Amino acid sequence: MTFRVTRFLSGYHVDPEPAAAVPPVTAPSVHVPVMVREVLRALELTPGLIIVDGTVGGGGHSLKICEQIGPTGRLIGIDRDPTMLERARLVLPAENVSLHRGSYVDLPEFLNAENLTAVDRILVDLGLSSDQLADRERGFSFHAEGPLDLRFHSGEGPTAAEFLAKAPVEELETIFREYGEEPHSRGLAAAIVKQRATHPIHTAQELAELVASVVGHQGRNDKHPATRVFQALRLAVNRELEHVKKALTDVFPQCLRPGGLLVVIAFHSLEDRLVKDAFRDATVWDVVTPKPILPTPTEERVNPRSRSAKIRIARRR
Question: What digits encode the pLDDT tens for the residues 120-157?
C-alpha cells in the first residue's frame, strides 16, 4: 500500500513570528534512547567514519556513536529543536562533532558548509524526546496548561492552536483520519469547529478534554483518548511526513556514499510505510532488514516508549 503525503496548513496565512530565544540549558537530556545496541550494530561503525544523526535530540545515540568512530571519525548532528541541540552540546565531544539547527532535508546544505559531498552512515530517529514531552510550555503533553504549540521550532509555521482556530472542518477531518488514523475524525472536527466559535482552544489540556468528551476511552487500553489527535496535529504542523518522504526519496540517496547505510527508527505505521515504500526502489537501496528490528521484551519493560519502535536498514547502491 502506498501512503499519500498530503500538504496541509496551506489554506490560510499566519504571519511568521520571530524565533524565540532558546532558554539557557544547563542539564543534559533525560531521554532514554531506544534500542541503542541494535542501532550501533546496524550502523556497522568503525573508526574514522563520517556519520549523520539527522535527529540528534539530546545526543543519546550520538554519544555512543562517537565512542565507536573515535577521534578520527566525524559526527554531524541535526535537529529542528534548538533546545535539544543545546542539550546535545552538553554531552557530545566538541572536537569531532558539528551541530546544525534544521531538518534532515537540509542535509545537502549542511554538508556543503562542512566541505563534504557525501557521508558513510545516516541515522534518523523519528520519535519524540522525553524532554519535549515534559516541556509544559509547548503542548506536547496532554495535561500541559501552556500554549498548544506542538512545533519543534517556534519560528516555523503556525502553532497547533492557530491551525485549529482557522482550518476548515474538512481539513481537520482529513488530518485526523490520515495522520492520526482516528475513527472519530468527523465528529472531532465538527466538535472543534463548534467550540471555537465561542471558545477557541488554546492549551493542550483544553484539546485533550474536548477529545475525551467526544471519543471517551473506548477500548484504548492505556492510551489517552487524545493520542491519535495529538499525533496528527504534530505531524501536520511540523510537516513531518513530507520531510520523511523527501529525505528518503531525494536527500539521503544523494548524500550517502555507495555502500553506505541508512538506519531509520519509526514509531507508527505512517512513517514505517513511507520507509518500506522508499526501500522498495532497488535502483537506490539494498534492503538489509526484510522485516523490521523490534525492541526486546526487556527493553519494552525498562523503556516503555520503545514499544512501538521499528528499525529498518538499507544500503545505498
Answer: 999 999 987 755 655 666 667 776 677 899 998 877 88
Distance CA 67, CA 69 (A): 6
* 202 to 149, 160, 163, 195, 208: CA distances (angstroms): 9, 9, 11, 12, 11
**Cβ neighbours, 10 Å, residue 141:** 18
Distance CA(287)–CA(168), nearest Å, equals: 41
pTM of the predicted protein model: 0.89
| pLDDT tens by residue, 228-285 | 999 999 999 999 999 999 999 999 999 999 999 999 999 989 999 999 999 999 999 9
d(C-alpha 20, C-alpha 152), whole Å: 12
pLDDT tens digit string along 185-234?
999 999 999 999 999 999 989 999 999 999 986 545 567 898 899 999 99
SS (H, E, C) the chain: CCCCCCCCCCCCCCCCCCCCCCCCCCCCCCCCCCCHHHHHHHHCCCCCCEEEECCCCCCHHHHHHHHHHCCCCEEEEEECCHHHHHHHHHHCCCCCEEEEECCHHHHHHHHHHCCCCCEEEEEEECCCCHHHHHCCCCCCCCCCCCECCCCCCCCCCCCHHHHHHHCCHHHHHHHHHHCCCCCCHHHHHHHHHHHHCCCCCCEHHHHHHHHHHHHCCCCCCCCCCCHHHHHHHHHHHCCHHHHHHHHHHHHHHHHEEEEEEEEEEECCHHHHHHHHHHHCCCCCEEECCCCCECCCHHHHHHCHHHCCCEEEEEEEC
